[in-house]
Recover the amino acids of this structure.
């Protein structure tokens, strides 16, 4: 019998145990009826405050003053941020801002330029 590749690590050593497939390489388990589309295939979807889809390398503008933890000043509204990188998590934009250095921003506080 041929089992689907693991959607997590793309391993070929998967097997079925009752109603689940199991990958012995990364220990990922998924239901028999679930899609086997890998996480890399689905991509990371991040939207700005207006609902526009963001991509790596985009330029965004902050829409409000943002306090920076550990810094004495804030990032002012209207600050242009170039060459963003999308990341997973609560602060889903990694970038560098002149005068602050590397910063992680929430996409709900920026709009696409």
């Amino acid at each position: 019998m041929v089992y689907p590749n693991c959607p997590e690590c793309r391993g070929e050593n998967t097997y079925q145990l009752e109603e689940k497939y199991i990958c012995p390489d990364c220990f990922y388990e998924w239901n028999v009826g679930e899609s086997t589309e890998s996480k890399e295939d689905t991509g990371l979807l991040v939207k700005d405050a207006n609902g526009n889809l963001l991509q790596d390398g985009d330029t965004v503008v902050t829409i409000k003053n943002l306090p920076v933890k550990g810094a004495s000043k804030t990032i002012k509204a209207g600050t242009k941020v170039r060459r963003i990188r999308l990341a997973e998590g609560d602060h889903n934009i990694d970038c560098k801002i002149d005068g602050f250095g590397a910063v992680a921003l929430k996409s709900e506080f920026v709009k696409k330029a």
In short: Helices lie at 39-42. The longest helix spans residues 39-42.
